[in-house]
């Protein structure tokens, strides 16, 4: 069967199934379970209206439970087990967590993740806010916004390949294809292998994520800046405030809840960063991060116990920020 025809059938079945579910669920609720007739018509209508939202939400809740809830429980279970020779598992309690905590690579990943958490959300939000403010004040602002937002359309792996070429370094007798080393050699210096310099190579990797996330921050913050009432800006201008005073003392405080939402959203992305490190250094030269450490344990060392334990650590780190992000977003909507 032609793939396009298969896709069409899938869409018809999917859409038809949704429409059928909601139609027959309504019919069952209104005609069979709580019919709107007889002496209890009023009470039945009220009860049907109370149950109806939960019936409509049931498919989404079921899918969420299946694809989010079950993996969490299974990962927790695997983190407490150990594979035994010949197949099967045995209960080891917290031994996997103890083994993970005793490995220098784990603490290297924790340290690097902390650097990522400090640098990337702060720079992405700051550059996004600056870009939002400046592009709103120039005629070709929409063009500039499109260029800044364009990296968001590139996958992390694609962005990593681009920046790996930027950082590329070859022996001095060869032609440099990396733009940074081409400039350095052109100025009389020696080529630099940026990605192999311990400690600093982490910041070279962070630049890739900042480059990608700045466009996201700019779009959200630009919408927030445009929502500021013009009256407050005009009043500040009449009172003699300078452009910097208007920006930092009038605009930024008014959009601070949005800034917090952007910052926490990027923080969640940082905690899950994997593609960039995997594609550019594969965790070598002291650039290991938690997600890459988990991948190494699960699929290279085939140590599912420690790999699952590291996955639980990532989830525990992400959960409070996720809750805070939802709380801030709901507060902003109100």
UniProtKB/TrEMBL annotation:
The chain crosses the membrane at residues 7-24, 54-73, 114-135, 147-167, 179-197, 203-225, 259-280, 304-326. GO terms for biological process: transmembrane transport. Residues 110-325 form the ABC transmembrane type-1 domain. It is a multi-pass membrane protein. Pfam families: BPD_transp_1 (PF00528). Gene3D superfamilies: MetI-like (1.10.3720.10). CDD domains: TM_PBP2. Keywords: Cell membrane, Membrane, Transmembrane, Transmembrane helix, Transport. The keyword Membrane applies. The keyword Membrane applies. GO terms for cellular component: plasma membrane. It is found in: Cell membrane. Belongs to the binding-protein-dependent transport system permease family. This is Inner membrane ABC transporter permease protein. It comes from Dinoroseobacter shibae (strain DSM 16493 / NCIMB 14021 / DFL 12). The lineage of its organism: Bacteria, Pseudomonadati, Pseudomonadota, Alphaproteobacteria, Rhodobacterales.
């Amino acid at each position: 069967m032609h793939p396009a025809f298969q896709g069409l059938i899938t869409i018809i079945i999917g859409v038809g199934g949704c429409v059928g579910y909601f139609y027959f669920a309504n019919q069952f609720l209104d005609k069979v379970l709580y019919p709107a007739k007889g002496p209890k018509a009023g009470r039945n209508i009220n009860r049907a209206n109370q149950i109806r939202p939960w019936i409509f939400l049931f498919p989404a809740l079921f899918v969420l439970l299946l694809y989010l809830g079950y993996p969490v429980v299974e990962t927790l279970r695997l983190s407490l087990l150990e594979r035994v020779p010949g197949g099967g598992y045995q209960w080891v309690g917290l031994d996997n967590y103890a083994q993970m905590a005793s490995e220098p690579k784990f603490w290297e990943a924790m340290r690097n993740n902390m650097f990522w958490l400090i640098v990337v959300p702060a720079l992405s939000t700051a550059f996004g806010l600056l870009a939002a403010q400046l592009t709103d004040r120039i005629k070709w602002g929409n063009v500039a916004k499109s260029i800044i937002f364009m990296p968001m359309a590139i996958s992390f792996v694609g962005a990593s390949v681009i920046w790996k070429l930027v950082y590329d370094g070859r022996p001095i007798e060869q032609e440099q294809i990396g733009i940074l080393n081409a400039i350095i050699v052109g100025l009389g210096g020696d080529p630099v292998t940026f990605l192999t310099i311990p400690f600093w190579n982490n910041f070279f990797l962070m630049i890739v994520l900042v480059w990608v996330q700045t466009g996201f921050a700019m779009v959200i913050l630009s919408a927030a800046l445009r929502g500021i009432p013009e009256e407050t800006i005009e009043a500040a201008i009449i009172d003699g405030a300078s452009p910097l005073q208007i920006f930092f003392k009038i605009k930024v405080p008014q959009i601070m809840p949005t800034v917090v939402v952007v910052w926490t959203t990027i923080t969640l992305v940082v905690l899950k960063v994997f593609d960039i490190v995997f594609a550019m250094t594969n965790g070598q030269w002291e650039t290991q991060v938690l997600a890459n450490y988990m991948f190494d344990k699960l699929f290279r060392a085939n140590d599912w116990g420690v790999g699952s334990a590291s996955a639980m650590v990532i989830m525990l780190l992400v959960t409070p920020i996720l809750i805070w992000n939802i709380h801030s977003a709901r507060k902003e909507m109100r």
